[in-house]
Amino acid sequence: MAGDIYALAAPRDTDCFLIASNSGINGSVVEMARIVRDHGHRLIAITSLGHSRQVASRHPSGAKLYELADVVIDTGTPLGDAGLPIGDAIVVGATSSLVGVTAVQMITEGVCRRLLDRGRTPPVYRSMNVPGSDQANAALEAHYRGRVRPIEP
What we know:
Helices cover 40% and strands 14% of the residues. The chain has helices at residues 2-9, 27-38, 49-52, 65-68, 96-117, 133-143; strands spanning 16-20, 42-47, 71-74, 84-87, 90-92. Strands 1-2-3 form a 3-stranded parallel sheet. Helix 2 (27-38) links the parallel strand 1 and strand 2 (42-47). The radius of gyration is 18 Å and the shape is globular.
């Protein structure tokens, strides 16, 4: 399945991958990371090192996501990915989703700033609810045709 997803993405040799998985141990996640590395791509992992280091991999190789990554962003989330104990050993409130979204947004902001510092306009998709966005987004879709699928048919 991971191979099919990789093929569907049709990555270029220079493409970098970002894979997010709180535990970083599930078979499909590790398999995708292995495929990415086997094809020579750089890999960024967003994962909880504390969680991953306390559990066994579910992939036949025994590998974990963080072991395959070039860059690891540790979310610091706890084993079980919950932060609010409510009683009777019940803990709720997933923390990885909040931390993961924040990390991705910070990466996006950093990449855009670096592009601007180099005199390049970041290829940022604009909100469809802002005047002029349809034209700007259509230009991006045309430029990246075959690489990025449009939001609407």
